[in-house]
Amino acid sequence: MKHKFLILNGPNLNLLGEREPDQYGKISLENLEDDLRDAFPDLELSFFQSNHEGELVDCLHQAHHTGLRGIVFNPGAYTHTSVALRDAVKAISTPVIEVHLSNIYSREPFRHFSYLAPVCVGQISGLGTGGYGLAIRWLISNS
Ligand code: CA2
Q1: In 3D, which of 68, 63, 27 has the Cα closest to residue 44?
Q2: Which residues are catalytic?
Q3: Would the CB of 20 count as within 6 Å of ligand 1?
Q4: Which residue is closest in CA terms to ligand 1's atom 12?
Q5: Each residue of 66-108: pLDDT tens digit?
């Protein structure tokens, strides 16, 4: 049976590749998803992106019931604002890795704080789209 993982992306990440390439790279979210499917053919990867906080909360709750081995989550700007997403991650037993394309610690001070980091198993920040694959590799070996 294939191990299942969820790749979850928050607000504005649907714009990936279309704007701000210097900050977030040139690859679209669709191409990133295709690249991950190609890189991990033995896994069952599911993908979800939403610009709505409640939909992300719902998705985390559902993940808890679908036998996932792990979740790779880029919460976008909700990283710095959302107690609701922190509570949702804390409420599920599925391990979650927080991923950021940019190095949030080299940017504006308001991005240096993450509500989610303390309830995630770890955080990858600043390695571009490569961070998603690294997070999956860690989850394969450790979850
Ligand atoms: O570096 C990251 O991955 C972020 O999670 C991206 C968020 C930002 O608010 C976080 O502080 C760090 C912003 C996502 C915006 O995505 C865009 C992608 C392409 C073009 C415009 C926005």
Answers
A1: 68
A2: 24, 100
A3: yes
A4: 76
A5: 889 999 999 999 999 999 999 999 999 999 999 999 999 999 9
